[in-house]
């Protein structure tokens, strides 16, 4: 069984490992490491933006939440491939939605790479609506939003 809590400095190495494991399958599709594989998780943890799913003392998933004036940006959500399909990603999405409500904003926004076709279907099944597609930071991204009610 896993639990979810704010990440601490000791989690950074595990969070990076989850990101690499979760995203390395996309390197051949994109032609380079996706942004989450090179993100500065130490800085994000210091800023209190990372929540980690932990099982047996080890990170198995995480979410990076970035408050914005009118929405909550779910900058990244990842689950270790060996633990996918057990509700960890769903729990992390629910956490983001709960944070948006507490922040007093009406939606969660996120984006994913166009080449990550599994994610496109995953978010749609969970009530996220595609808003647009654009090139950003050299990546072809698909943007989503989900309305949350207080």
UniProtKB/TrEMBL annotation:
Looking up CDD domains in the UniProt record yields: NAT_SF
Q: Which residues form the N-acetyltransferase domain?
A: 2-149
Reading the lineage from the top rank, the first entry is Bacteria
Alphabetically ordered keywords of this record: Acyltransferase, Transferase
The cross-references to Gene3D superfamilies, in alphabetical order and at most eight, read: 3.40.630.30
SUPFAM superfamilies from the xrefs?
A: Acyl-CoA N-acyltransferases (Nat)
Name used for this protein in its record: GNAT family N-acetyltransferase
* Source organism per UniProt: Planosporangium thailandense
């Amino acid at each position: 069984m896993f639990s979810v809590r704010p990440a601490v400095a000791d989690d950074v190495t595990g969070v990076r490992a989850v990101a690499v494991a979760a995203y390395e399958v996309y390197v051949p599709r994109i032609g380079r490491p996706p942004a989450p594989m090179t993100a500065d998780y130490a800085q994000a943890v210091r800023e209190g933006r990372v929540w980690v799913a932990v099982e047996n003392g080890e990170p198995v998933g995480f979410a990076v939440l970035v408050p914005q004036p009118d929405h909550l940006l779910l900058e990244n959500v990842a689950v270790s491939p060996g633990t996918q399909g057990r509700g960890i990603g769903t729990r992390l999405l629910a956490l983001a939605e709960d944070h948006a409500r507490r922040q007093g904003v009406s939606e969660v926004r996120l984006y994913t790479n166009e080449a990550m076709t599994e994610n496109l279907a995953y978010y749609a099944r969970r009530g996220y609506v595609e808003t647009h597609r654009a090139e950003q930071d050299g990546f072809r991204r698909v943007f989503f939003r989900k309305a949350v009610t207080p």
